[in-house]
Amino acid sequence: MKALNGISHEATAGAKGVDWRKSMSDNVAIALIVYTGLNIFLTVDAIKHTGLRGLAMLCLIILVAGIIPACRKFEKRWREISEEEAHDRALSGAYRRDQVMLWAMALGLPFGLTLLFKALA
Q1: Beta strands 7-8 and 3-4, pairing class
Q2: Which of 90, 91, 103, 120 has the fewest CB atoms inside 10 Å of its own CB, making it the most exposed?
């Protein structure tokens, strides 16, 4: 059936709007890539300047072990909502809050770790 009451299937699918589940999943994936890149780039630079290679590697392992479960928590929270809630504009505030927290963590931790290494040197 191509049309329902004169409205095409494509139009009704587009009317649903944003899917919070997919959007958060995309944000988590991109945040992990950015986090990893920043962590490597900034930490390697800090190691060169401070010579704290062993401590830097230990901190990297701890941070990686911590960020993956944290990101999964954000993703799981949004993955478990219903189909109706996934397109509910009323959830935009909660989504934005989680998105800001995710990106603050993904961007803040590598810079914080670098500052820590430089402070110890």
Answers
A1: antiparallel
A2: 90
Q: What is the dihedral of CA 56, 63, 97, 73, to 10 degrees?
A: 170
Which of these, 110, 78, 79, lies nearest to 91 by C-alpha position?
78
Largest CA distance in the chain: 71
Token readout for 33 is: 């890539």
Query: What digits encode the pLDDT tens for the residues 22-41?
Result: 999 999 999 999 998 888 88
Low pLDDT (below 70) residues in the chain:
1-16, 50, 52, 55-56, 59, 121
C-alpha to C-alpha distance for 107 and 67, rounded to whole angstroms: 11
**What is the pTM for the complete model shown?**
0.75
Nearest in space to 63 (alpha carbons), one of 78, 42, 86, 81: 42
Average pLDDT over the chain, rounded to whole? 80
